[in-house]
From TrEMBL:
One of its GO terms (molecular function) is RNA binding. Belongs to the methyltransferase superfamily. Fibrillarin family. Involved in pre-rRNA and tRNA processing. Utilizes the methyl donor S-adenosyl-L-methionine to catalyze the site-specific 2'-hydroxyl methylation of ribose moieties in rRNA and tRNA. Site specificity is provided by a guide RNA that base pairs with the substrate. Methylation occurs at a characteristic distance from the sequence involved in base pairing with the guide RNA. HAMAP family: RNA_methyltransf_FlpA. This is Fibrillarin-like rRNA/tRNA 2'-O-methyltransferase. Coiled coil: none annotated. The keyword rRNA processing applies. Keywords: Methyltransferase, RNA-binding, rRNA processing, Transferase, tRNA processing. It holds the Pfam family Fibrillarin. S-adenosyl-L-methionine binds at residues 62-63, 78-79, 103-104, 123-126. InterPro entries: Fibrillarin, SAM-dependent_MTases_sf.
Length: 205
């Protein structure tokens, strides 16, 4: 990852969402992006130019645009029409973003245009976040990585954030993913946690 001093940045055309520029690089604000928050609060995954990424819950493309500055291609899935309009504009300015208007819980909708990816990233605020991630692991390469941005209050408001966090980790491990990092994203995002996993080369159950 690229840092100028202690500031996380990405090198690409600026002006996507009014982000600050620093030494001709785009400042990646952890308060605006949960992935940026992971790089400050934890370790995360090193993004590389040859990587292909499936991004679930692309929203208006804020984080997608930064990821696209680092990697070869981003398949960006978004379901809501209004954010998709913004995402299309972001994709117009970056030819390595493939916007897909589809339901992330139904990967068969975009399977015909997908290829195997190195990283599966999910930021979908739904109760079945873990199950959505698991369904999309079909696109993950052997030894591919997974990042789940868990909004604990969207999973079950009756349970404590800690309980939801623990149960989600257990579910991913039971599926066969190796959990390599799990961290809360405070102080940047309240009741949000990041779970980073690795897919075993022999596949998952």
């Amino acid at each position: 990852m690229i840092r100028i001093g202690d500031v996380l940045v990405s090198r690409g055309e600026g002006g996507v969402y009014g982000e600050r520029m620093l030494a001709s690089a785009r400042v990646w604000d952890p308060f605006r992006s949960k992935l940026a928050a992971l790089y400050y609060a934890g370790t995360g995954i090193e993004l590389a130019p040859e990587m292909k990424v499936l991004y679930l819950g692309a929203a208006n493309g804020t984080t997608v645009s930064h990821v696209a500055d680092y990697v070869e291609v981003v398949y960006a899935v978004e379901f809501a029409p209004r954010p998709m309009q913004d995402l299309l504009e972001v994709a117009r300015r970056r030819d390595n973003i493939v916007p897909l208007m589809a339901d992330a819980s139904r990967p068969e909708q975009y399977a015909p245009v997908m290829e195997a990816v190195d990283l599966l990233y999910q930021d979908v605020a739904q109760p079945d976040q873990a199950e959505i991630l698991i369904r999309n692991c079909v696109f993950l390469k052997p030894d591919g990585k997974v990042i789940l941005m868990l909004k604990t209050r969207s999973v079950d408001i009756r349970k404590s954030p800690d309980e939801v966090f623990r149960e989600t980790i257990e579910r991913l491990a039971a599926f066969g993913l190796e959990v390599i990092e799990s961290t809360w994203l405070s102080p940047y995002h309240k009741d949000h946690a990041a779970i980073v996993c690795k897919k075993h080369s022999k596949g998952v159950a």
